[in-house]
Amino acid sequence: MTRAAPRPEPRLRAWEARTDVGLTVLSAGFLLLYACEVLLTRPGSPAWRALETLLWVLWAVFVADVAIRLWLARDRWRFLLDNPLDVLVLLAPFLRFLRLVRLVGAVSVLTRTLRDDLRGRVSAYLVVTVSLLGFVAALGVYEAERDVPDATITTFADALWWVLTTITTVGYGDRYPVTTEGRLVAAGLMIAGIAVLGTVTATIASWFTEQIQRSRTEAARRDEPDPAGPGTPDPATWTELLAELRRLRSRLDELEAAPGQPPG
């Protein structure tokens, strides 16, 4: 049974075109504010409260954007299936680890402009996405682990090293989260690492397949017969043949004009 083609979404696409730039700027600001909150302040301080308030306001903007896009979409089920990160943003108030899920909105908006690109730009998409997710995961696990007794991730440098070994699936085991929130970050990062490796492998395999197919096509093109038929003269030969035919025609005309003369 043939699947129905996706319904066009002109209103949704128009909204995204108008808001992508502004939301991307807000997303970059969101990540910067969150980094400042984690690295430069401590919970309960005046600076921490101010940054926390700004983060909640920006997160509310992301939620409003998702809600509007969902309302504009003709096929809402397809929208939800195609935008799982945005669904997490909508479900954030009902999740225990709200702080981590708030970051999903910022990351998803920052990478939205690359989401529908062709395979040739997969590398750029991977670099942006992995860098953002790795940075966010390092901030999240550092915030969750830094003040916990018996924690092995006590500095941001430890968090970055842990992210690198986790997302590449190496897993040395010298740094690991001990809190529930930190383990939640680890689970998401492990899944992201597997997805990244699978995407890279598929991209490289696709590139090799394309190169092999192109080489075969070029080789077949060099060996294939001329479309006009075997042994067809080139244009220069055609010119010489036409000139020779004209000379023969002129000679025949001369012979016909003088019938009493012997040929020769």
Which helices and strands, and how do they pair?
Elements: H1 10-40, H2 46-72, H3 76-82, H4 84-91, H5 98-110, H6 122-145, H7 156-167, H8 180-223, H9 235-257
Helix pairs in contact: 1-2, 1-5, 1-6, 2-4, 4-5, 5-6, 6-7, 6-8
Structural summary, described in words:
With 264 residues, the protein is mainly α. It contains nine helices and no strands. The protein has helices spanning 10-40, 46-72, 76-82, 84-91, 98-110, 122-145, 156-167, 180-223, 235-257. Helix 4 (84-91) packs antiparallel against helix 5 (98-110).
Quick description:
The chain has 264 residues and is mainly alpha-helical. Helix content is 72%, strand content 0%.
Keywords for this entry:
mainly alpha, 9 helices, 264 residues, single chain, 72% helix, elongated
Cα Rg:
34 Å
For the terminal residues, how far apart are their CA atoms?
80 Å
Count of runs of 4 or more consecutive helical residues = 9
What's the overall average pLDDT, rounded? 75
Q: Give the amount of beta strand, in percent.
A: under 5%
Largest sheet descriptor:
none
Principal-axis shape equals elongated
Number of strands: 0
In N-to-C order, the SSE pattern is HHHHHHHHH
- Could you estimate the helical fraction of the residues in percent? over 70%
Secondary-structure-based class equals: mainly alpha
* Unreliable stretches: 94-98
